[in-house]
Amino acid sequence: MAVVYLGLGSNVSPRENLGLAVRELRKRYGELQVSSVYRSAAVGFEGDDFLNLVVRLRSEETPADICEEIERLHNMAGRDRGSSKWESRPLDIDMLLYNDLVLDERPVRVPRSDILEYSFVLRPLAELAPDLVHPVTGKTMASHWQEFDAASHPLELVGVIL
Asked: How many CB atoms within 10 Å of residue 103?
């Protein structure tokens, strides 16, 4: 059984779309562990703030199967995949980690580079799994968060329960 971490974000009806994603993930994978929800400014474009969180799930599915499920959820939320990477979106789900697998072959790229690049990914991941070791760096998520320049992209804890 694989332990999988997914990063979820939305800046178009975020409470509704993140709620939809978490409900659908629970239907498919059962019990989820869900981080707190964080608000952050859009990165790379002008747009509404994003709400972001990380979920941990267990699955016997392959990474490619999970990527297919992610695309199904994007479609349910009305995401247009033909559009630019740098724009508002109803739902953005990325597989961050799949056990300690290191793979960069479409559609699977794990560990996701976003983990070490963005506070809105690293902070909720470190909250959910502080002792989890990054499969490439060999450091824990808590260590990475302590070393991260949090002021470079501020986060606000949001009281949303999913």
From this structure: 10
Give the C-alpha separation, 74 to 72, whole Å. Answer: 5
Give how far Cα 28 sits from Cα of 70, 72, 74, 148, 159, Å: 11, 12, 15, 34, 25
Residue 84 has pLDDT above 70, yes or no: no
Crossing angle of helices 63-76 and 14-29, rounded to 10°: 140
Torsion angle in degrees (nearest 10) through CA of 86, 29, 155, 135? -80
CA distance 93 to 54: 9
Angle value at C-alpha 11, between 126 and 110, nearest 5 degrees: 40
Evaluate the omega torsion of the peptide bond into residue 111 and state whether it is cis, within 30 degrees of 0.
yes
Sorted by where each starts, the structural domains of the chain and their CATH numbers stand as 2-158 (3.30.70.560)
For residue 156, give every residue at least 6 positions away whose Cβ sits within 8 Å of its Cβ, in sequence order, or none. Answer: 38, 39, 40
**pLDDT (mean) for 42-70:** 94
Neighbours of 124 (CB within 10 A): 27
Confidence of residue 78 (pLDDT cuts 50, 70, 90): confident
